[in-house]
Amino acid sequence: MTVGLVVVCHSRPLGRAAAALASEMTQGRPVAISVAAGLDEGTFGTDAVAISEAMTAADDGDGVVVLMDLGSAVLSAETALELLDDEQRERVVLCPAPLVEGLVAAAVTAGTGGSREEVAAEALSGLAGKEAHFGTSAPAEAGDGSAVVRVLNPHGLHARPAARLVTEMRSFDAVVEVRNVTTGSGWVPASSLTRVTTLGALAGHELAVRASGAQARAAVEGFVRLAADAFGEVTEVLADPRERYVNHPTTGPALHRGASTSHHYRVSGGSLPEACGQAGIVDNSDVAGGSAKATGGAGDTERLLSGAPSSPGIAVGPAIRLHEQPLQIPDEPFQGTEAEQRRLDEALTAAHREIGQLSGDIFAAHVVLLEDAALLDDARAQIAQGLTAPRAWRAATDRAAGEFDALLDPYLRARAEDVRAVSTQVLRALLGVPPATVDGDGILLADDLTPAQAATLDPTRVAGVVLAKGSPTSHAAILLRTRGIPAVVGAGPVEAKVIALDGSTGEVVADPAPEVLADFHQRAERQKASRDNARANAAKPAVTTKGVTIHVGANIGSVEEARAAAENGADLAGLVRTEFLFLGRDEAPSEDEQVAVYRAIADALGGRPIILRTLDAGSDKPLPYLPAPQEANPFLGVRGIRHSLAHREMFAEQLRAIVRVARETPVSVMFPMITKVEELIEARRLLGDVPGLRVGMMVEVPAAALRASDFTPYVDFFSIGTNDLTQYTLAAERGNADLLALSSGLDPAVELLIQNVCRAAGEKTKVAVCGELAADEAVVPRLLAAGVQELSVAPALVPLTKQAVRAT
Ligand code: PEP
Ligand code: MG
Questions:
Q1: Residue whose CA lies nearest to ligand 1 atom number 6
Q2: For residue 341, how far is the Cα from the chain centroid?
Q3: Of 84, 109, 219, 587, which is least packed with CB atoms within 10 Å of its CB?
Q4: Contact residues for 296 (Cβ-Cβ < 8 A; gap 6+)
Q5: Which one has a higher pLDDT value, 761 or 485?
Q6: Using 50, 70 and 90 to split pLDDT, how confident is the model at 408?
Q7: Distance CA 317, CA 462 (A)
């Protein structure tokens, strides 16, 4: 038996040389080594077709082991596998060993007649000699000091989960290393946040971990546990990742509305009002007088800017600015390695103290960055080479931030922001530059804010914020929302003395004319009165002006949210996302556990009806205990009902639990992601005939909306999930902040689909909408006009949604 070898790498000369070196080691025993490397003699690249041909050439019936260099070599090798017929594919092993060392070890083992598995295993330990030589961590045996895990976090291993990983791994007496198997990265120390995050580990990627030292086994076990717990990011995994902003009680509609619109920005041509009272909604007469004087007559100009609504609320006030001394690194003499190192250490301690006073995950990640071994080592190495502490620190942090900038994933790329924020904080301490201050009370105009600046603004003085740069998903924007400071971001440079802004629509008016100011003033008052009124009437039914009662329910994903729903006057739980029970744990919940939780939800709602949606797992919400193959397009993959029908035992258990609760309390059941009538029929067959149990389906896929009339014989109600229906109709991923312009608001195409569903439903079948659009007051009248009879929204938005119904 001779197993063949295939070398896949970016450079043809490198591939040939590696093969020649390996052949030298086989002691004259012939081993077939095929090389698929480079696009030609001089062009770097890999080609799947050439790789599949090399696989065929090296396989004389005993199969092949493939060794790859990195990145696209791995992906091309996987593609090449697809090009082989089933029988041949079975005989191919893609081996994650290092190319040169692995190839040499593999060739020797293949030459002695080893099996494919033996050859691959030998290749995997190809680094052992080198590691032993340098006394670094030798890869431990599987089950002892190594493991492979899958990343469950929807946004991958970004700064916060990575920070958690690094913190935990540092607590072990072990040298722990991790690599991204999916991208074929090298090993990085698990003690370094910058190195771990630059693995570019996305949701679904596989990470290998290895450890050596006294607590190697405990460290690896800890790592595996942590990975199953999504590195502590449980709440984000439980909820759909997008809900972090689309479903947020205060931010959701704000981001949905207006994100796609351009915003009016007026610049008055005359002189500007001199004084503007205090921050907040300023006294109308003061400003109106000043502004009228200033802007009266010709010369007013209008221009449109695109800004993003980022934190809801209306604010008017004088423009104020951040005062910060520029961070200029002086040309100063090097004071010696020890002295510079001491300077850096002192500055790190000072920054640590400052950041430690701020609470929140973001700052916890910053603290970990301050302790990052790779970052600190890099800075120390620069000092050792004669750079002053500030220069060394800047060089090290620039390099780390640059590594993030180079990543493909936008979410991970944005983490460069964290490194720069920490860099600035330490540099300020090094150079003795005080933190930025705000020069008065009013609306803060700034280029951008660091998270620390956003976290320390005083809301009693800063009534609103307009940022020239930034995005609604930046840390600064998130903090402003959390702190209730109205904000518009990405508005471009604004020069003004007075600013009026609406953080729900993204509108920014610079130096507003008196009538504009009066308008903002009235809007703010209306907004406040409307909120107060909505809250006071939350428990009453929502009846349109024509006397039609529309039930307004709540979308919930926990017992706590069920309580919030009841407090906010929800008429029902229009959508219970049962996946919260299934995610972030080691095994599926038992039937009894499910019954207990569904009962608790029903109790919390005090006997109001609840609509239990069966598990909407899979793809972007993978279950750790049901590992699934990686999917290139998870949203088009095995999710919702497809997942349940693929795991029937678990599905049947959930259906049994739902039926048991339905005997005691008003429960309906609905199935997510139904695309074909056959799926619905099969789901109903598994559910069985349960007298009195109302059965519905989510309409989230355009195919289902278009063929709604084919589904009506099998359902009592439709619940339109506009979050998914919008993303599938517009081919715009719902969590992608860059596509907000496409996916916000009620698109006419989606509206047509909703109208079609309502038409098909007729008298017999009820139609509800449970996507985020149901809470958009501008959209509610259109939904009701189409024939929608029930709405379900985030618990906190029930009062305002009822109000929107009453106004219709
Ligand atoms: C939807 O898609 O609109 C919906 C309500 O379901 P989810 O947000 O849970 O996917
Ligand atoms: Mg959905």
A1: 721
A2: 37
A3: 587
A4: 270
A5: 761
A6: low
A7: 9
Q: Is the dihedral of CA 483, 486, 492, 498 positive or negative?
A: negative
Residue with tokens 């370094």: 192
Taking CA atoms, 178 is separated from 61, 197, 512, 779, in Å, by 35, 11, 56, 48
724 Cβ closer than 6 Å to some ligand 1 atom: yes
Q: pLDDT tens digits, residue range 696-730? A: 999 999 999 999 999 999 999 999 999 899 999 99
- At 461, the pLDDT band (50, 70, 90 cuts) reads very high
CA atoms within 13 A on the CB side of 390: 17
Residue 724 CA, closest ligand 1 atom number: 2
Segment 22-43 shows an average pLDDT of: 85
CA distance 344 to 379: 9
Q: Judge whether residue 491 has pLDDT over 70.
A: yes
| Predicted pLDDT at 455 | 82
Distance CA 605, CA 281 (A): 39
Ligand nearest to the CA of 621: 1
Q: Which residues are CB-contacts of 279 (< 8 A; sequence separation ≥ 6)?
A: 315, 317, 318, 320, 440, 441, 442, 443, 461, 462, 463
644 contacts 614 by C-beta, under 8 angstroms: yes
CA 494 remoteness from chain centre: 30
In a 10 Å sphere around its CB, with 0-12 CB exposed, 13-18 middle and 19+ buried, how is residue 51 labelled?
buried
- The predicted structure's pLDDT at residue 70: 85
* Token duo for residue 559: 């017992």
Dihedral, 285, 287, 293, 294 alpha carbons, nearest 10: -170
E strand or H helix that includes residue 160 = helix 159-170
The pLDDT, as a whole number, for residue 620 is: 61
Is 758 noted as a catalytic residue in this protein? no
For residue 240, which of 507, 616, 653 has the smallest C-alpha distance? Answer: 616
Distance CA 790, CA 783 (A): 10
Give the per-residue pLDDT at 281.
Answer: 37
Q: Which ligand 1 atom is the nearest neighbour of the CA of 555?
A: 5
**How many residues does this entry show for the chain?**
808
Q: How far apart are CA 802 and CA 780, in angstroms?
A: 10
Q: What is the pLDDT of residues 291-328, one digit of tens each?
A: 222 333 333 443 445 578 878 789 999 999 998 888 88
Please give the mean pLDDT across all residues of the chain: 82
In the block, tokens 């946040």 appear at 193
**Identified catalytic residue from 248, 475, 521, 643:** 475
pLDDT score, position 782: 96
CA dihedral 182→184→189→195, nearest 10 degrees, is -80
- Residue 269: is its pLDDT beyond 80? no
Q: Name the residue with the closest Cα to ligand 1, atom 1.
A: 721
Sorted by where each starts, the structural domains of the chain and their CATH numbers stand as: 4-134 (3.40.50.510), 142-237 (3.30.1340.10), 253-324+436-531 (3.50.30.10), 337-431 (1.10.274.10), 537-806 (3.20.20.60)
Sign, CA dihedral 364-370-372-373, equals negative
Contact 420, 448 (CB under 8 A): no
Active site residue 475: yes
Tokens of 256: 């949905």
Kindly report the protein residue whose alpha carbon is nearest to atom 3 of ligand 1: 721
If pLDDT is split at 50, 70 and 90, which confidence band does 472 have? Answer: low
Count of Cβ atoms closer than 10 Å to residue 607 Cβ: 9
The residue whose CA has the least distance to atom 8 of ligand 1 is 723
**Nearest atom within ligand 1 for CA of residue 770:** 5
Give SS3 for 344.
Answer: helix
CA quadruple 405, 194, 449, 434: dihedral positive or negative? negative
pLDDT at position 639, please?
92
